[in-house]
Amino acid sequence: MSVPGEKDDRPLYEQFGLRIARRGYDRDQVEAYLTRLLAGAPPAGVVAFDLARRGYERGRVDEVINRLHREAGPGGPS
């Protein structure tokens, strides 16, 4: 468990509880998006990922991204 305000060095799938599904969102695309979002530079527009075998579970990824956008608020990530 990390201390608030301290950088979390765990892999993204551990930080956010992302699980592998038989068919899910492409893991590399999801991790690249989350990395940009956490750095305060999410791409503009609609979030879309390719479906891939052994990808991240779609519902969980959507939930994490929605939560991060809500926490960032209207002014963008802090």
Task: Give structural notes.
The chain is α+β, with helices and mostly antiparallel strands and 78 residues long. 40% of the residues lie in helices and 12% in strands. It has three helices and two strands. Strands 1-2 form a two-stranded antiparallel ribbon. Helix 2 runs parallel beside helix 3. It is globular and about 35 Å long.
Q: Average the pLDDT over all residues and give the rounded result.
A: 86
The oligomerization state is single chain
The major pleated sheet works out as: 2 strands, antiparallel
User: Which shape, going by the Cα principal axes?
Assistant: globular
**Tally of alpha and pi helices:** 3
Question: What is the N-to-C succession of helices and strands?
Answer: HEHEH
Unreliable spans are: none
Determine the fraction of residues in helical runs and give it as a percent range: 25-40%
Q: Note the beta-strand portion.
A: 5-15%
Give the C-alpha Rg: 13 Å
Terminal residue distance? 21 Å
Secondary structure class reads: alpha+beta
How many beta strands in the DSSP annotation? Answer: 2
**Biggest β-sheet: strands ordered side by side in the sheet:** 1-2
Name a few traits of the molecule.
78 residues; alpha+beta; two-stranded antiparallel ribbon
What's the topology here?
Blueprint: H1 12-15, E1 20-25, H2 27-38, E2 51-53, H3 58-72
Antiparallel strand pairs: 1-2
Helix pairs in contact: 2-3
Describe the structure concisely.
With 78 residues, this protein is of the alpha+beta class.
